Structures are given as C-alpha cells and as structure tokens.
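One record is set out below.
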Amino acid sequence: MNTLAKRLYNLSPQPVRLTLDSGETIAFEPSSAEFFGEAFQAEGVSGDVTHRLVTDGEDDPLLIAKERDDGWDVLGEITAVEATD
C-alpha cells in the first residue's frame, strides 16, 4: 500500500497540501478516496480545477492529473501529503 495514498485516505475529506516532484504545491480538497486492493484513486478540487490521484500499489508512484475537456493531463508525482490548518 502506497504510504502517501494511505495518508491522504486517512486525512480525507479534510483539505491537504500536496507537494509534487517539481516542487510545486497544490491545495487539494478531496471529494473521494478509495483503495481497490493495493490500487488507490482519489478525486477532488483545487480552486475550480478537478484533479485525480492514482497509484497501482506500494512500489508505484502516486500520480496527480488535472481534468481537461478532452481527458486528463498528468502533472507529476506526489512526494508529500500534509494536513492543512
């Protein structure tokens, strides 16, 4: 089980700050977070943008994508999940 996905799951539905491998941070408000065995998927918003987070398991990265009119655009790998005050 991916430890960052588990942390997000445990904090959900409270807002969190996500740090990407690029150093960018995103204020994320999860609306759903589910495990399917080792796989994980969450959706939520940052402002008016919908994001999806996915991982296939412990050894796979937790990726974040943002929704576009024609699908999803992968932004990068999540390296930290922090609770916000």
